[in-house]
Amino acid sequence: MSNPSILILPGDGIGPEVMAQVTRIIDWFGDKRDLKFDVETDLVGGAAYDKHGVPLSDETMARAMEVDAVLLGAVGGPKYDNLDFSVKPERGLLRLRKEMDLFSNLRPAQCFDALADFSSLKKDIVSGLDIMIVRELTSGVYFGEPRGIHKEGNERVGVNTQRYTESEIARVARSAFELARKRSNKVCSMEKANVMESGILWRDVVQEIHDAEYPDVELSHMYADNGAMQLVRAPKQFDVIVTDNLFGDVLSDCAAMLTGSLGMLPSASLGLPNAEGRPKALYEPVHGSAPDITGQGKANPIACILSFAMALRYSFDEGEEATRLEKAVEKVLADGVRTADLMGPDGGTPVSTTEMGDVILAALD
Ligand code: NAI
Ligand code: MG
Q1: 95 lines ligand 1 (CB under 6 A)
Q2: Whose CA is nearest to atom 20 of ligand 1?
Q3: CATH number for the segment(s) 130-257
């Protein structure tokens, strides 16, 4: 049997810097845990534009469709700001998301105790927090028709349409239930069934999928506005939250900030399962290419490293190895190792991107 395959797309700015640390960690798992991957590296974003004149070549797109997981760094930067819209670096990422049909966006909010002081909430409310927001990514009000701005009499009217089909709801619900089975087996679905028909359908379909296919998972429903309140009041009551594109956009950013720095936040976007039951998958840090610190060795590689941990858990069914990696990150943070973005007001000496990689590898050993 061949090894599972990974396509690495470091991209632009700090993307290659943080991805270099992930590559070392992938090698560590091959050497020390006999967990071998077939890794290939290619270009995306501005880096692809510089070479091919497009932010994602057809060849790269084709490989992305074939591999078991794609790991992406970040795209964009000031050098490319004046490019035509059709070849902007972001278009490379959008093409990947669209052609891989990545409808399920996973945004964890995980609080490392050593960083609990970074939270805007009290330490005991966030300490030990580990929740996952599953946001529907390819439908809903950002895509529904009709849309636009038109004139009615003397004034302008702006229109967007929230639209969900049963199958769109069902597939993201399945994705959430599958995740829950790999976690604490609990899903809370959020909508506004009290005021939106699409919310009524959302609630019905999630319940039906649950009853027919995932009766072992504990399911609850909540109105999304209450969900926002509960997230800042008592976030630890949740495990997996599944919600639509618009509510998910807001709730995932809100949940992310419960735990602090942008340099710490991983994400995944999943599509339909292939023949082996592995979902199409793209893993990437939430942050961008950070042009302000590019090339200075200041970037925090943890968001990208934790994105690989998600790949281990959700693409490769290596939950224990994912935990091993997360524990190594937890240990170095507990030991007080900090990149510049994690320095508190009392200062100290930050480590570089590579040094952070060094200590995480040492902690893995
Ligand atoms: P950004 O996330 O790149 O940076 C925001 C701030 O956070 C900056 O001060 C940066 O130095 C800091 N930061 C980000 N990641 C960090 C890390 N790993 N370690 C330490 N500090 C970190 O967002 P910004 O500045 O709005 O965008 C910069 C470029 O990135 C733009 O071209 C934008 O289009 C692109 N971008 C790309 C994304 C992607 O590839 N998914 C997402 C967001 C922005
Ligand atoms: Mg957002």
Answers
A1: no
A2: 299
A3: 3.40.718.10
